Amino acid sequence: xxxxxxxxxxxxxxxxxxxxxxxxxxxxxxxxxxxxxxxxxxxxxxxxxxxxxxxxxxxxxxxxxxxxxxxxxxxxxxxxxxxxxxxxxxxxxxxxxxxxxxxxxxxxxxxxxxxxxxxxxxxxxxxxxxxxxxxxxxxxxxxxxxxxxxxxxxxxxxxxxxxxxxxxxxxxxxxxxxxxxxxxxxxxxxxxxxxxxxxxxxxxxxx
Amino acid sequence: xxxxxxxxxxxxxxxxxxxxxxxxxxxxxxxxxxxxxxxxxxxxxxxxxxxxxxxxxxxxxxxxxxxxxxxxxxxxxxxxxxxxxxxxxxxxxxxxxxxxxxxxxxxxxxxxxxxxxxxxxxxxxxxxxxxxxxxxxxxxxxxxxxxxxxxxxxxxxxxxxxxxxxxxxxxxxxxxxxxxxxxxxxxxxxxxxxxxxxxxxxxxxxx
DNA sequence: GTACAATATGGACATTGTCAAGATAGAATG
DNA sequence: CATTCTATCTTGACAATGTCCATATTGTAC
Lengths: 207, 207
Hints:
2 copies of one chain form a homodimer.
Chain A: H1 15-30, H2 37-44, H3 52-55, H4 58-83, H5 89-106, H6 108-115, H7 125-147, H8 156-176, H9 178-183, H10 188-197
Chain A binds a DNA duplex through residues 8, 10-12, 15, 36-39, 46-50, 52-54, 57-58.
């Protein structure tokens, strides 16, 4: 490769990484449907069947890409929680939710493959586990809300389903462009704030 | 065709419908990634390039399939609202939300193509319009909640984003299997009820 | 009945995923 | 250093697909 003069031309050096980068490029340019092993190989400057040695087949490449995405997601949520450690519990949750939606908006390619590609996680143990860790993090946070008395009478599972669905729905509808179509020109921040604040409207209602 | 003795063999009679049905079959059997014009044509008993005359290209076929799905969605939400006309406003919303999630669970093939196929709606005016009608319905319902004094101080847009995201998130995470992975073996009904009831937990909180 | 539009066929071509066989480089071992 | 082993990459092949084109058949309007 021209950009890697120290290495030999035959062995790429870090083809796996280069292919994952190419996948990101392709999706951002032409959508997830246009991802192909051959195009990724082309962009990485290797032959059409080189990717097979690293990822098996096309689905394997996408699985690796998705796993990368779940790693990112876990990271940003953990960071967000740490950054809001001094705030009230509910605002910590809000910070985590914002991080979730913002990751989707910043890495739409990863988010698409993670949740919109019909990937069968059970076929990829490593991906499955990474995703589970991500999901478990959210579940633990809502369980904390109950355990620490913020919602003493709530079912932790229901709370997890509620919070996760809300945040995930915001993310996918935003990435899809559907929210913009209905709400007009609003910033993502403004939409997140508004939606996450909505439950407090119920403070005036009778349960 | 053998199953349509009255019609000529050359002209199918209702190929468009048959192709849409085939798409549904294929997605349920092998996932949205396995949809192909040729396979759909095969199932409809026509030549490989017959579908082009009805839908242009593959994307056009999926666009028509998605439009069918948005039609269904509008239908079930309208029906749900009518069926809950006598109940309090909030329970009407809940009924609409349930209909939304249940449609996704019952027609996962349509739901996938509607929201998980990366279809560019702006390229298909008819699809675009049908989707807009569906989304506008939800927006109007949340606006009603504000106008009729259920949440007098709320921003209707924020409320729409909140409700739609919650319901849509439930739908996609359920269809994806992610919710089941975290919550274990719960029925869809139970999960919906729990998640939709969660906002009332905030009744005890200070806004 | 004739002309025209809609519908369907068959062939062709480029692209893709995948497989098998072989080539090249790096690392380990002597 | 020479040898062997393994990981990495290339080349060639094949079937399947999307799409275009020319052609054939049917339904319809006049």
